[in-house]
Amino acid sequence: MRILGLDYGSRTVGVAVSDRLGMTAQGVETVHRQSENKLRQTLARIEQIVSEYQAELIVLGLPKNMNNTCGDRVDKTMEFKAALERRTGLEVVMWDERLTTVAADRVMQEARIRREKRKDYVDMIAAEFILQGYLDYAAMKR
C-alpha cells in the first residue's frame, strides 16, 4: 500500500510517497500555490499524484506550536484535510510535524546545499520526515 505524505504551507505543499511496502518515504515534489485562499489547483495536483502513485492513505502534517497548542495554521490545515478527504475520497491521518522543517534545513546544510537552493526543497524534505515518522510508528504497531 502506498501512502502520501504532505507538508501543507501557505505558499507550498511538500509531497512525499512511500514505497509499496510502506517502509521508506521519498520526496516527490513541491506544489506551489497561487494564493493561500485558493485550493482548487493544489487539490487537483494532489489528486493527480494520488492517482499516479495509487496512494491509499494520506498523512498530513499537523503544525502545532512548540508548547503543544493549536494556532491559526492548525485551523487552516484542518480545512485542507477536509477538502482533501472530499476531493480524493481517502482517509487523511494527521501527524505532528513540529521541527520537520528545521530538520530538513539541517539535512540540506550538512549536504552543503546552497542557501538559495534550500527553499526549493525544504517542504518536500519536510514531507518526507512527516511520512517517515508515520511509517516508523505504523511499523512498530505491527
Q: What is the CATH domain class?
A: Alpha Beta
Secondary-structure class? alpha/beta
Stretches where pLDDT falls below 50 for ≥5 residues? none
* Corresponding CATH superfamily: YqgF/RNase H-like domain
| Total count of strands | 5
The share of residues in extended strands comes to: 15-25%
CATH fold category name: Nucleotidyltransferase, domain 5
In helices, the fraction of residues equals: 40-55%
Chain-wise SSE layout:
Layout: E1 2-8, E2 12-18, E3 25-32, H1 40-53, E4 55-62, H2 72-88, E5 92-96, H3 100-110, H4 115-141
Parallel strand pairs: 1-4, 4-5
Antiparallel strand pairs: 1-2, 2-3
How would you sum up this structure, described in words?
The protein has 142 residues and is of the alpha/beta class. It has one domain: Nucleotidyltransferase, domain 5 (2-Layer Sandwich), CATH 3.30.420.140. Helices cover 49% and strands 25% of the residues. The chain contains 4 helices and 5 strands. The protein has helices at 40-53, 72-88, 100-110, 115-141, and strands at 2-8, 12-18, 25-32, 55-62, 92-96. It has a 5-stranded mixed β-sheet with strand order 3-2-1-4-5, with helices on both faces. A hairpin with a 6-residue loop joins strand 2 (12-18) and strand 3 (25-32). Helix 1 (40-53) crosses helix 2 and helix 3 crosses helix 4. The longest helix has 27 residues, at 115-141. The mean pLDDT is 87.
